[in-house]
Design goal:
The complex is a heterodimer of chains A (180) and B (109). With 180 residues, chain A is mostly helical. Chain A has a domain of 123 residues: Four Helix Bundle (Hemerythrin (Met), subunit A), CATH 1.20.120. Chain A contains 5 helices and no strands. Chain A is rod-shaped, with a radius of gyration of 30 Å. By secondary structure, chain B is mostly helical. Helix content of chain B is 51%, strand content 11%. Chain B has 5 helices and 3 strands, in the order βααβααβα. Chain B starts with a strand and ends in a 6-residue tail after the last helix. Classes of the chains: A mainly alpha (180), B mainly alpha (109). At the A-B interface, helix 3 and helix 4 of A face helix 3 and helix 5 of B.
Chain lengths: 180, 109
């Protein structure tokens, strides 16, 4: 490309196709060129730095979401594990389930706080639906404790799990695509 | 301002009803919470419910306590009288308000 430009310039200088090159240097044009080059570089560095910052922010949010997904699965596994084992959920299991739901609630709270402080702040309104789904999920998991889960309870628990999981996936993709 | 600390009742709040186990929401409502609420309301004071310092709450306990109170008294009065502190699990506050709102249409005792 550069070679082609050089060849065209040399040929133009020699009068090829009636081209000509004015060898006088116009200070105004040189200044304009300098300013344009400076602006181009400045904009490039500004956008590059900003894109890196946005990506880092999104990575923090996505890490928080990863924690939430992990807690969400832990709650589901513990409730599933308690199904069909006895007529009553043992005290130990009950405490474990309550603790896991607390961890999930706090992971969601962390995510909400981080979202509110980030460039993706506009997505905080999405959190109402996530909270609603979380409360349904908690009711499904701890609403009858210490009574044992029956098939209906597990079915409802699974539905609320999938509803919350869906909301969180939707939020994940929105964060990833969000333009600050 | 008056304060009710749930950890003073139990650090491991239990189930919904007395017959399901110790430290139930029903027991808490009957032995501690209802009288504290009525006293605060009568004296026109705020009753701060401190939810911290326990191992966590099952929905059953929270619904029996706060939903139970809202089935006996006006939800708007309850929300005017109560305030909440939950540093351990901030999500609890909205959850509790949800139970109070849901219970407000239930028939009163």
């Amino acid at each position: 490309m550069t070679l082609a430009c050089v060849v065209v310039f040399v040929l133009a200088d020699r009068g090829w196709q009636n081209f000509s090159i004015n060898h006088e240097l116009d200070p105004v044009n040189i200044l304009t060129l300098g300013v344009n080059v400076f602006i181009a570089f400045a904009i490039q560095y500004y956008f590059a730095a900003r894109a890196t910052e946005d990506r880092a922010e999104k990575d923090i949010l996505l890490d928080n979401l990863r924690d939430v997904f992990e807690m969400l699965r832990s709650c589901r596994d513990e409730v599933m594990g308690a199904y069909g084992t006895s007529k009553k959920v043992t005290k130990e299991t009950e405490r474990k389930i309550i603790k896991l739901y607390r961890n999930l609630a706090n992971a969601l709270d962390n995510l909400q706080t981080a979202l509110d402080m980030s460039g993706c702040k506009a997505l905080v309104k999405e959190f109402d639906q996530v909270s609603k789904r979380f409360y349904e999920y908690k009711i499904a998991g701890t609403g009858k404790l210490p009574r044992a889960y029956d098939a209906d309870d597990i079915g409802y628990h699974d539905r609320t799990y999938r509803a919350l999981n869906k909301e969180l996936h939707s939020l994940t993709f929105k964060i990833n695509k969000h333009h600050v | 301002m008056k304060v009710v600390r749930i950890r003073d009742f139990s650090e491991t709040p239990g189930p919904r009803a007395r017959e399901e186990g110790p430290f139930s929401g029903e027991e808490f409502l009957e032995t501690v919470f209802r009288s504290a609420y009525l006293k605060a309301k009568e004296e026109r004071e705020t009753l701060l419910v401190d939810l911290d310092g326990t191992e966590g709450y099952a929905t059953s306990f929270l619904e029996a306590t706060f939903g139970g109170l809202a089935r006996e008294f006006e939800a708007t009065d309850i929300l005017k009288t109560l305030s909440f502190k939950s540093d351990d699990e901030p999500f609890l506050i909205n959850e509790i308000k949800g139970y109070i709102f849901e219970a407000r249409n239930a028939p009163r005792k």
